[in-house]
Amino acid sequence: MKFLLALTALAALPLSSLCALENWSGRSVYVAYPGKSSAKKPPKNPQTILLLTDIFGHLSPPAQALANKISKSGNFLVVMPDLFNGDPIPFPPPATGLDPAWIAQHTEPLVDPRITEVVNNINKKYKPRSIGGSGYCFGGKYVFRALAKGEVSVIFSAHPGLLSLEEIQAGAGKGPIQFALADEDPAFGTAARIDAEAVLRNSSMPWTSTVYDGPGAGIAHGFAVRPTVPGEKYSEWALNKATDDAVSWFKLWLN
Ligand SMILES: *[C@@H]1O[C@H](CO)[C@@H](O)[C@H](O)[C@H]1NC(C)=O
Ligand SMILES: *[C@@H]1O[C@H](CO)[C@@H](O)[C@H](O)[C@H]1NC(C)=O
Fold this sequence. Notes:
Keywords: Signal. The protein has helices spanning 2-12, 61-74, 100-104, 108-126, 138-148, 165-171, 190-201, 233-253, and strands at residues 19-24, 27-32, 47-52, 77-81, 130-136, 154-158, 177-182, 207-212. It is α/β, with parallel strands linked by helices. The chain has a single domain, classed as 3-Layer(aba) Sandwich (Rossmann fold), CATH 3.40.50.1820. An eight-stranded mixed beta sheet has the order 1-2-4-3-5-6-7-8, sandwiched between helices. It is globular. The protein starts with a helix and ends with a helix. One 2-acetamido-2-deoxy-beta-D-glucopyranose is lined by residues 198-199, 202.
């Protein structure tokens, strides 16, 4: 517990040489570097993870802790861009729901090009050996869209939000897919999961889907970024398990 708190606190402190906030063509991007590499000493042809965040964005401490952990445990270059042009939702979100004006600023026709621009920059800067996509909630939809376009070759999608069956169909068969889902998630519940799995079962690529559930409130939407109940053992286990599963999926399938 103390260790976890320390990690979270670390992510919010001034950045070490292992991670940096950078400005890529006017876009703020959080980069976690593998091994002894850094912005000044870039890794050569790294296996790269494009981390697509939830609505709280790339500056939120849990997202940065996640990027650091994925980079460290997989020896990956992790690139986590600002998907919202400086306009993330502050945590916790308003109980009244998201403002329609905010939603209108972050729809597919606006967000897709932001991601394509970042992928182009990754390719230019690092000539990566391969790129995987790790997406959470809002980002859990966009990793499917990136997979369908061949921008990434392997994905992990945790508790996706606004992910349609058409988007799953477009990504299915394009690369290995892993889901990490909360059973009673209003954003992606049991019916959505069963439909998604039918599509994946039909595809020619490896896939896996892990569901987290439990008595009472169990494990809730968002669990793979923030523990459902901080400090509670099952919530902390689910967060760590989902992160470890993402890393081992990328180690298994990325070239
Ligand atoms: C990136 O740098 C440009 C040019 O110096 C600056 O105008 C812009 O505000 C910066 N953007 C971010 C997100 O830091
Ligand atoms: C599975 O594939 C068959 C043949 O391509 C297709 O007709 C069917 O609709 C697919 N089912 C799902 C659930 O995608």
